[in-house]
Amino acid sequence: MELTKTLKDFIEEGADWERKQTSLKGVSLIRLPATKNRAASLAIDINPVGENGLPMKKKGIMIMNAAELAAFRATFNNEKVDSLIAALEDVLPERKSAGKPAKADVLQI
User: Fold this and answer.
1) H or E segment to which residue 87 belongs
2) pLDDT at 98
3) How many Å apart are CA 7 and CA 4, to the nearest integer?
4) CA distance 34 to 63
5) Are 22 and 109 within 8 A, CB to CB?
6) I need a surface site. Which of 14, 23, 46, 55 has the fewest CB within 10 A?
7) Backbone phi and psi for residue 14, each to the nearest 5 degrees, phi listed first
8) In terms of DSSP bridges, do strands 19-22 and 106-107 run parallel, antiparallel, or are they unpaired?
9) How far is CA 64 from the centre of its chain?
């Protein structure tokens, strides 16, 4: 119940595009602004954290409902995606990671 109240408060009082970190590494919430056709809403942003404690990508994957989550899970669990990423790793040079340290304001889940 506390999580639901926190989410309601965030959607009502948060700033447009405000990001709130969660206690799950690599998972945050984003408050999406209202548009002509819909009220303000929230999305889960998934951007895994690397060994250095920083996000792996500049932008993560935004998920707004269970159907989107199921579709991403199905795609990530496809064996052909594993084969494709292995081939990419053979072809592409290794990358270095850089970035800023994480923020302290964390939403406990």
Assistant:
1) helix 79-91
2) 56
3) 5
4) 17
5) yes
6) 23
7) -70, 160
8) parallel
9) 10
- Read off the pTM: 0.75
pLDDT digits (tens, 9 = 90+) for 32-84: 999 999 999 999 999 999 999 899 999 999 999 999 999 999 999 999 999 99
Question: For residue 30, what are the contacts with CB-CB under 8 A and spacing of at least 6?
Answer: 17, 18, 19, 20, 42, 43, 44, 45, 62
Query: Please, what is the average pLDDT of the chain?
Result: 90
Alpha-carbon torsion 5, 11, 13, 15, what sign?
positive
* Amino acid in position 19: R
Cα 64 from Cα 39, distance rounded (Å): 14
The vertex-4 CA angle with 35 and 25, nearest 5°, equals: 90
In angstroms, the CA 55 to CA 27 distance is: 10
